Amino acid sequence: MLTSATLMATGNVFDDAVVIARANPALGVGCHVVLTDGHPVSPPHTIPSLLGRDGKSFRPSLLDFVQALVRGGVREDEIEREALAQIEKLQRAGIRVTHLDSHKHTHLFPAVTRPLLRAAERTGIFAIRNPFEQSWSVSLGRGHRLRQVQVRLLRTLHSRFDHQPPIHSGKVRTTSGTIGISATGDLDTSTLCAILRALPKDSTEAFELCCHPGYNDSDLDRVTTRLRSHRDIERKALLTEIPARLLHPNAPRLIHYGELAEAQGACTTDSRCENVV
């Protein structure tokens, strides 16, 4: 039921994640570019504008990163350098990287999108997550109201994302949007069912379902995240609702980013070929 995942080059269990990814060749694996929270792959002295006060690790929160970005304190060339280092770490480990996305969706901002696209071109990657949620999906998220407001406000940056030259030209592929962001931490069976039912009918679009399925075990206890017990809930929701949806007439086709170009090409002749990554 899971067709696509992303892997953090900076994660503490990177080697274990690589083993799992390589054992599942049908799984599309992207690079989850990290620019906040944790330690970089690049030597710290080569990316000083990305680091926090200790000069060794990234800024500890998304807010800290965005404030520095808005003030012009983050250099695009250093973002590109670190993104390149993270991508190449995955590729050296034998991962065929299908696409890029970013931790905390930092590539919502053009100053992050641009260097990520340059890094993608340099490493032969031709797809990137569209980090903007569809309005109909936002309204179905049952999470915190503040999160929904934030997601709606950030949609004002969507047109700038779409008009980045590699995306606008189709050289780098993306979806029509990501669904489930507003429901992060609250994507239970009923919410996922509502989102899947709301997928546009007779659509020729592709959407990414953003979710965090997993197991709330002792390994997760060592990770700084608010998504703990809910990983079990999301896993059960996926295993329940996706198979049920696939039994419906005109069910969406499950793909990963490595199949996106082919799927979108087919949609130019197919009257109804909705895809979910």
Percent of residues in helices: 25-40%
Query: Which assembly state applies to the chains in this document?
Result: single chain
Strand order of the largest sheet: 4-5-7-6
Inertia-based shape: globular
Biggest pleated sheet:
4 strands, parallel
**N- to C-terminal separation?**
10 Å
Uncertain residue ranges: 268-272
Strand content: 5-15%
User: What is the mean predicted local confidence, pLDDT?
Assistant: 89
How many extended strands? Answer: 7
> Mind telling me the C-alpha Rg?
18 Å
Cofactor: Mg(2+)
Protein name: ChbG/HpnK family deacetylase
Keywords: Carbohydrate metabolism, Hydrolase, Magnesium, Metal-binding
InterPro entries: Glyco_hydro/deAcase_b/a-brl (IPR011330), YdjC-like (IPR006879)
Describe the structure.
This protein is an alpha/beta fold and 277 residues long. It has twelve helices and seven strands. It has two domains: 1-125, TIM Barrel; 129-277, no CATH class. 39% of the residues lie in helices and 9% in strands. The strands form two sheets. The chain has a four-stranded parallel beta sheet, covered by helices on one side. It comes from Edaphobacter acidisoli. This is ChbG/HpnK family deacetylase. One of its GO terms (biological process) is carbohydrate metabolic process. Its cofactor is Mg(2+). GO terms for molecular function: deacetylase activity; hydrolase activity; metal ion binding.
